[in-house]
Structure formats: C-alpha cells, structure tokens
C-alpha cells in the first residue's frame, strides 16, 4: 500500500456537516429496492423444509412424491450440495448449516428445499417430502451442555486449548485464556471483593428485513445473485466455493439492507437458492419468513458468566477475573473468546485473567451481533464494578474514572493502548446534565462503560469524474448506516467540491475489486480511507491534465479547493482551472479521469462509550419504563454527525430491548416457542425515550481524518447500564438478562423474603 | 530479532511460552518462521491471527514491518457485526 494513512490535524469544509442522505427519498417513498423487491421473468418460488426436531439423525429423505407434483421444478437435499470445502472446517459448517447432511442439529435446520411455480405449490411439495428421523436427546442450555452427561452434538469434537489433550469428546469446543499479572496476589491486596454469577439469554439481531435473494443460474454455468447482505463479495466467495463455481462467473448484487447487525455476514439460504436454480434451469426467489429468520438464521450466544473483582479501600482495583461460557449453536465459534478479550478492556489492571469456553448446543448457529459477545461480558463486569463501588462507598463514575485505562495501559487482552477515549467519556458522563436530574420513587439511575475493537480490511474504491465534472464513487462496502453519504462527504472534502457534486453507489461484484464485508464498524473507516486514496490519485491526474492544458510542468501545478493553480509568479496571469473545466477537456487531454484505490485498511482505532440510564420499576408487576437515556462515545472524527448519532441511538435501542424483553424461549422438546415479533418483543418507538447523544472526537492516529468505527460500541454498555439502573430502582441486584417483568418481580419478592 | 507475545491459547502450543524471539522483518516473515518453529501454529495462522504492533492491530497487512524494540502481540482474528 503506497498510501499514508496517518492522521494529521486539518480543518474540514464538508466532513462534519449534516447533508440529507442520498438514499433517503427512495427509502421513505418505497422506491428503494430491498432483497425481496427484486423479480425476474419466469422466476420460481423457493421454500425450505426444516427439521421439527432439536436433534435427530436423518436416516432417509424421500422426495419422489414432491417431485411428481405438478408445478414443482426442482427438489434438493444435501446430495445436491456435495462437500467441496476441501478441509475448510468453517466452510463445512456453513454448508452443513445451509442443508443438514447426516443430522438435524436444531429446530429449524434445513433438510430439503423445493422450487415451484408458486408459493402454494411449493408449500404443498414440502408436505410431500418424507424425512425419516431418529430423534436424539438434545441440550439447549449452555451450562447443561458442558456437563459430561449432556447429549453430545458431535462426537468428533475434543476440547482445544486444554493443558492435557482430552481423551473423550465434548460439547466444549475450545478453552481460551487472556490476562496478565498474578490474580492471586492481586486478590490478596484487596480490601473488598465482589463475586457474582450472571446469565444472559439468546437474542436475535431483530433486523426488520428477512433474508431474501433471487438466484439465476444460466445453462452456460454463469450466474447472478441479487441478495440482501452485509458483504456481497463474501457471499460470492462462499456461494462459489459451495457450488463449485469460479467466483468470476457469479455476479452478486447487493440490495438495500433493512438491517443486518452481523446476522447477514455469511450465507444461509443463498447457496440453496442457487442450487435450486441450477437444477430447475430457471430463476428462483427465496425469502425467509419471520419464523424462519428466528429459527434458522444466526442469533447471538446465550451466556453464563462468573466475575470476581477485588479493590483496595482507596478504590484501586487490585485483581479481576471472569469465566465466560458462550453458546455457539451446533458449530464451533469464537464467541467466548471475544467476550474474554473485551470483558475488562475498559480498565487499567495489574492482575487480570479471563477464561472463555465455547459450547455447542442444539440451537441455531450463532452469528455476530453488533460488537459480538462484548455486551454480555460488559453486563457481568459492569454490574460487579457497580456493586464494588457501592461496597467501597465510592460514586460509580468516580470509581471507574480512578481505574480507567489510558494511553500506555496494557489492555486486559494484551497490547498496550495508544490514545483512547474511555477516560474522556467517563468525564463527559460525570458532567452531563443527565446526572443531575432528580429521581422519583421507584426510579433508579445506572451507568456503564463499553469497549469494542473495530477493524478494517480489504477495500477497493473507484472514483470516476464525468465530463460535466460530477463525481461517481463506486464502493464495495454495503451501506448499512449511511456510508454513501459519509463517503460522498469524504470525496467532496478531498477534491474540494460540493457534496451535491458526488454520487456514491455500491457496485456489484463484477464491477469492482474484492471488498471484505461491512462488519467490525469498518464501512466508513475503510471505505473513507480508500476514497481519500482514490481522490488523491484522481487529483494527480487532474494536475497532469491541467499542466497539459497550460503547457507547463506538472510540478508547478497544485490542487486547492477544487481547482488547479499554477504556482509561481511566472504564471501570474493563468486563471485557476476548476475540476469541471478540466473534466470538460478530458477527451482531448488523455481520456477519462478516474482515481482508483485498492488497499487493506488496518489500524482501526479501538472505541469506548459510557451510557447513563434512568429506569422506573413498578414493584407490583416488575414492569419497567425507560425514563432517560444518554450515550457518550468517542467517534475519532464524526464524518456525518447525524448518522453517528443514529448509530449511538440504534445501539442503545437494541440494547434496551435485549436488556428488558428479548429472549429465545425453548420448550422441553427443544423447539423454539416464540419465533415471531408478537412473542419476541423488540422495542418500538413508544417504548423508548429520546436517546440523547454526545460525540467525543479523539482522533485515530491511523486514519487521515482520525476516523474510528462507530457502529458497534453503542450496544456494549446498555445491558449493564440498564441492569444497574433496575437494580438501583428495585433495590435488588439483577443478574439475569433479560430483566423481563416476571424476572424483576421474582427478584423483588425474593429480596423481601418471599 | 523481535520479541513476540502470544495470547494464552497460542502459548500452550509454543510449549507453554508466553513470549518467543524471532528474527523477522515483517508480519509475513514472522508467520513463516513461527510455522517453521512451531508447526502447531499453522492452523491458527490459516484461521487468522492479528498482530498488534505498539498497540495498533493489523489483520491483513502482512507487509507491515516489525520495528526493533516494538511491542508485538499476537491476537485471534476477530469477527464483527
């Protein structure tokens, strides 16, 4: 990479302003096309048959009756998706999850699929498929699954990361450990120790748009896929590998996205749609129902966490440890590992140890959910931190400020921090007017901190200058939170032109080089870096063209505020040339003008937030009401502050739902009892107060404008902030998320002595 | 010669060491030599290892130079939402 990403102080003309989003009109008028809005002539309807059992061996599948039904054009099973993963264990898991091979591993696991001329015929065909199951014992609880007596999901799995090689298979796929110092010595120095166990239930990202795609495979082996995804290049790689295609023969176009939050980072139904289309010879549209989204896409882990923290009387933490057990669904993951890395990341600790256990259960394959794994770890740690502050008799904000990590602190996950924002977010929270609002009866205030890594990745961007001087920006990171606006601002900033002169689009996989998906809060961070690089490359060409037009050496031409200027007194009579003028002459100076950039955007700055929350609890029913909520977060540099605030508010809203209501509820039969928004209740506007935000800007030294990712950190503190608020309001420590009314009422009753 | 700190699980594969010394000029050479000295590292490298150099995490820039005296820390490659 010949691009220098280092931050330097500068003033901004476009970045930091709040123009109207370019996709706004289409979205509010219904013109924007989401995954299910795409249609092709002659397309078939795809439907998936799913296991009604939590755990079962598939002895035989008879599709003959379905195939004979009039209107059915293709029926597929795992036999139509042979294993082409060549030893890639992660891809094999994705393949097995798309279509069960030997065993159904959870309620909702796909076992067969049909393509028919209409939905009614497809549904009828599913009923005609006969699956001979041998039902097996199942386990859905993370603690139960760890016991030696638990039903085994996969007898080929032996726990990784143990000192001694295990001799018997286990549902625990991996043990990981992080930390430094000597926790025994640290606890020996403590005057106060808090030790608690916590649980969080499984939740879904709750994106409003279900998974949807249209697949069209031609007889020449080329194919198109229109799909709702966070990463169409990644989907192309996955689908091409699973179907034995060359990636270049599969063009994937991403639709608008009605939410993903990590749940649309790997394929679920898309290889099935392509396999159906290949077999039927016609396009196939496959749209999941809400029931299917809950049962068969990728929710987050359920967890069970033990925390122990010790501190001296003066409020200095001397030691901290946590054991984190995270459910992975039926396939290995690294969810507890991430929880173990993030758990104590906010604090300056001399002695810290975290241990994570990845646990297989008969639930859907766990997927990333916005700062995956961090909210649950923060809930446990920040609850214990609050309790410890109380025992010492310190204000919880002051206690955190005293122990906050800072530049030069060794993080609990290993490396030493550069410039970071945890201290400033705590100071801002301490001084925020929210902290001074009086509380009434049955009301409590809570606060909590949160951390997320953020990352970058492979990124490719094209910036094309039209002959009229307007600029087309083609990016490969799917716009999940307003990045087309923020990237247009960045292009305008760098070129020195108006925002309105730039139009950003998300290009398909055949039009642009590979891009990693939009995850890890990387969309604006990575693509803005590539946009800056592309714009600077375009400016180099613009200067060369101006030099030609003036017939002077290019070294005498500089770029300022959207114009070339001939520097030096000898060129005193030359009027500056605007981008429009240079573009208009481009046909006679060498042809089209464009800037391209291909880079790996590394060096994403870590991000911290502090949240404050006021809650009222009805002690008679356990019902709660969120009265006030404030988010303070470091953005590095807010490119489009309105969207940054939107990310802060969105993370808080999802966290409020997770903390208070949302949970997967399984019956004794291992089947999901609430796969719909009536019984799995996410917060709606009337459940929420206006969520206040405060943006801090501590520049990331590894981005030219100082940008950090902002999308994920905002969901890390809410579980803990709300738990602390509810605990203060109800007078009893809440240790189980969600804090639904029955759970709060039970805790109050138990505290009163039954 | 650079000193490389390993996270807990990786240390177990290096015979319980938490730090190893490697002669490597960049991340690519570091991974190659680690795999040569500790064959158990290979599946981890295939799965993805991030390298923190003086606190800045690099996931894919294998050409990144390893300055003498820098703090070099290996981490699991993370997933995000």
Automatic annotation (TrEMBL), chain B:
Q: Which Pfam family, just one, is annotated for this protein?
A: ThiS
Which domain of life does the UniProt lineage start with? Answer: Bacteria
Which parts of the chain span the membrane according to its record?
A: none
Q: Which InterPro entries match?
A: Beta-grasp_dom_sf, Mopterin_synth/thiamin_S_b, ThiS/MoaD-like
Under which name does UniProt file this protein?
Sulfur carrier protein ThiS
Q: Which organism is it from?
A: Mesorhizobium escarrei
